Amino acid sequence: MFLVRNLKQFSTFNKRCCVYFTKVSYSNAHSKFVTPKSQAKQIGPLGWFLLVIPASTFALGTWQVQRKKWKEDLIAKLHNLTEADPVQLPTDLNELEKLEYRPVHVRGEFLHDKELYLGPRTLILKGDSATKSQLMSTTTKQNQGFLVITPFKLADRNETILINRGWVPSKCKNPATRDKGQVKGVVDVVGIVRLQENRPTFIPKNQEGSNQWFYRDLNQMAKVTGALPVLLEATTDFDTSEGPIGGQTRVTLRNEHLSYILTWYSLSAATSYLWYKQFLSRVK
Asked: Which InterPro entries does its entry note (predicted)?
């Protein structure tokens, strides 16, 4: 009886072990063949939604690469335009809209008694601010001044235009302090064509009565001086002793796209790693 009873218990134990190991084997085998559907279920809707963040930041970084190329091409184009050979002032002044940043040659006489002052402005050297990256420099205050815009009576036609003669320091704003720079008689001038400028944000309105101009409103300047709304910015070739410093055409545009590229790509890499650790690495 004892032997029979032990045989029955052993048989029952053997059956239970077989069932257990069968389940374990099936589970291990099944875990090796996870379907895409089961992966999706484990990542969940929130995981797929958060994947938008690294994808979007990567796309923004790529867009900034394209913007950087476009800005560099534009700066190079402006330099090429300003350095081109000067052309004569067209008879039809409406053609000047297609000639912005092109040098134009004119001949005539300055009307110094009607000059205007645009500013305050920073001195520009070689197409860029002389105080760039010098926020704490002691020369920053010295480089603050005004642009002298003077009506110019053309010699070959009965018309008057505006010439931005250049920059003078604040202490020389009064023409009496720079008498030698007040060129008299008929002269030749080469200047860069500039068009109407809309009032920038946060910039106050121009004050005609005080001859204080904050932005390049050609229509308003022409009305005050009796000239046409045409402006040329004189090059450095015609600088005179004690006179304004020419070449005040800014041809360097703000280009911070490299920092934007690094920012967006770094965010994309960081969020991609976090997404992988949070969701993909847990999928078994």
From this structure: Surf1/Shy1, Surf1/Surf4
Residue 224, both tokens: 């005050």
**pTM of the entire predicted model:** 0.72
Give the sign of the dihedral formed by CA 117, CA 119, CA 125, CA 130: positive
Containing domain of residue 158, as a range? 102-250
C-alpha–C-alpha distance, residues 29 and 41, integer Å = 20
Q: For residue 13, is it within any domain?
A: no
Reported as a single tens digit per residue, the pLDDT across 223-232 is 999 999 999 9
The pLDDT of residue 212 is 85
Q: Are residues 109 and 240 in the same domain?
A: yes
Q: Could you give the angle at the alpha carbon of 201 between the alpha carbons of 143 and 167, nearest 5°?
A: 25
Instruction: State how many domains the chain has.
Output: 2
Strands (E) located in the chain: 87-88, 103-110, 116-122, 124-125, 128-129, 144-154, 160-169, 186-194, 212-213, 231-234
Where does 134-284 have alpha helices with state H?
218-225, 257-278
Does residue 238 sit in the same domain as residue 110? yes
Residues 74 and 130 in one domain: no
- Under 8 Å between Cβ of 181 and 240: yes
Q: Cβ contacts of residue 149 below 8 Å, gap of 6+?
A: 115, 116, 117, 118, 162, 163, 164, 165, 213, 221, 231
In one-letter notation, the amino acid at residue 46 is L
DSSP 8-state class, residue 137: -
